[in-house]
Amino acid sequence: MPHILKRLAAAACMTLTLGIAFAGQPLKIESITYEPQANVNGEQLLLNGAGLRTKIFFKVYTAGLYLKAPARRNTEVMAQNSAARVRLGLLRDVSCASFIDSLNDGIKANLQPAKEKAISAGLEALRSLMRSIGDVKTGDIIDFDYSPDKGTTVHLNDKPVGEPIGGGRALYNAVLAIWLGDNAIDDGLKKKLLKSGD
Prior knowledge:
Number of helices: 7
Strand content: 25-35%
Number of domains: 1
Number of strands: 9
Shape: globular
Radius of gyration: 19 Å
Oligomer: single chain
Strand order of the largest sheet: 3-4-5-6-7-8-9
């Protein structure tokens, strides 16, 4: 009997080790690679999920969600107040106007007018940042980051764009809702970003 227990323990240990090794591997979607971890304002985050955004038959971008704690539901993501990141990898050229239109449509589809009004200053600051980026090109990487200390920040190809935007988690959750809200921009992508999409 002790031998059987030892074998079971060894098998369990091997399974756990393999699981950790697999979880630590970079994930490549199309031409974009998502590392298993990311650092946002000094906090180490884990890749929660990643997927492909398509529109009609076109591949537009990939998206990866990094969180402090794993989440299988959008409500679990929204409830967190630790650092977070959404990383977009562009698979085609997208005009600034199209990007901002998508941002506006995603927010309006998932946010009640009163809540949108409450964070209107932050939303306008975010639009202003996107205008300063201008048109984005194939291969560009855009990060939408959040930390409790700095608020929402935007990076283009690992370089900060403008100043951090205040508005707390409410503003960042409005951004997250574009991909994770009840009326998300792409249901298939939403499932991939959450653990249930694995």
